[in-house]
From TrEMBL:
Its EC number is 1.5.99.12. This is cytokinin dehydrogenase. Keywords: FAD, Flavoprotein, Oxidoreductase, Signal. It comes from Musa troglodytarum (fe'i banana). GO terms for molecular function: cytokinin dehydrogenase activity; FAD binding. Coiled coil: none annotated.
Amino acid sequence: MEFALFCTKVNILILILALCSPCKFIQSPMDYGPSNLLETKSSASLDFGRIVFNSPSAVLRPQSPRDISLLLTFHSASSFSKVAVAARGAGHSIYGQAQAIDGIVIEMDSIPSDIYVHKKRDDESGVSYADVGGGVLWVELLEESLKLGLAPRSWTDYLYLSIGGTLSNGGISGQTFKYGPQISNVLQLDVVTGKGDLITCSPTSSSELFYAVLGGLGQFGIITRARILLQDAPQKVKWIRAFYDDFDTFTGDQELLVSMPELVDYVEGFIVPNEQSLLSTSVAFPAHLGFMPDFHHVSSAKVYYCIEFAVHDFQAEGTSAEQVSSSLVVEKISKQMSYMPSLVYSVEVSYFDFLNRVRMEEMNLRSRGLWEIPHPWLNMFVPKSGIKEFKDLLLENISPNDFEGPILIYPLLRDKWDANTSVALPDAPTGGDGVEQVVYIVGMLRSANPASCAAGCLDDILRRNRQIAEAASAGRIGGKQYLAHHPSLLHWRDHFGRHWNRFAARKNLFDPLGVLAPGQGIFPRVH
Ligand code: FAD
């Protein structure tokens, strides 16, 4: 275990820990090296959002789950429980969720990456799965599992996120309508609770902890290992985009696609507020395609909508028969859709390139200095009944011509989410025809380039985001934030609604001193 100390506030706690554990203890900044120290300190107070910058007092780089358990056990047994502790996966939060002001940040990537892939034999019952450390990135798991022709079923759009980080939120992408979010595809977890207990849990063993941690915003324990369900990976993917100038037709076709899980493997979509946004979208088509639909000749509508869907292609190398059959599937699906004639594009790519598509956009933005800039994102779940009103609310609150970044919008199906997990989905409307299956996820993934949007402008975007989120949470729309950021306990109570009592009881059970994940700003510390 390595520790980098930045002030004396937590030194005594660390000293006790170091005396009792066979770990490497770095007592002074000189041991660590001044540049390393600075780097570590700044990375622990930094995230993808670049809006909140809270410095910790110390950074722990554990070598094993036991190091984390030791820290939290000593911590809760001693009088040092005022020090908060945050796990940091890949630090791709937006509003400081993995930071710990004057506390201890645990950098999960320091635990040696350990991925074990089990491929089910034909004569064996059960399933294929991977055992993987909580700090491992999804892209690392993909690379490893593909070696055996396998892959996880459910994804996020971007793969350089940690297993523990996305399982603490949900993990959503275009496969969610079919397989549920990533948290619906986990068989077992190893968790260190806020009290320091290292527990293996599953739907049948310590199930309360298992469900609490999934979507639990890091509040109940630190995920040190996850068993992830795997399936056969296709070799290729047919990836299609179709455009619309009418919102109802667009959502009608999206809902048609998610009603055909036997044919369709992935469904997303986005709003095109201006033509430039096609280039800056995080769901970029491969650059060589020179993808740039020309709307002017087709329609005078100002805002367009794009459906993106994909069909897996299990072609064996060189065989054209399978290729034809996946083309037939796409043809069969397309015939039932109502996109603008001639505005449909398709490409065939390897499964890895398809899943890793946002990396291309990252590289592009990095090369232009546009990746490490503020990202005032807003993500919301919106019930089907409120989606049109929400879209109008969004468009009223942005200037289409200078909006930078994609606006994703696509349907999910409520019954693919396990209600025992901690995620807060919008309540299903009562009355009418009962449970409304379709819930949309809408992501306003905005960038604020300091060259054109300075501090006042960023504040203005954040203020507008809050207004949109408040208006959408109340009344007819009935939305809820995903990757939520709320200013007060009252807002969090509202966020969890009828599940608040369960969430608070789980906190009391697994992290009674309120040590974990202070950056979420949910629970005040217990002193
Ligand atoms: P961090 O930011 O490091 O941590 C997030 C929270 O989880 C913190 O509270 C932290 O304390 C806690 N935490 C971290 N590791 C652990 C652990 N091992 N155990 C317990 N708690 C832990 N999300 C989607 O669902 N779908 C997407 O398509 C998607 N695309 C994205 C694209 C980009 C470019 C970015 C920046 C984010 C995207 N996200 C997406 C959001 C992402 O899933 C979350 O921000 C997630 O938390 C990032 O994982 P991380 O490892 O960076 O987490």
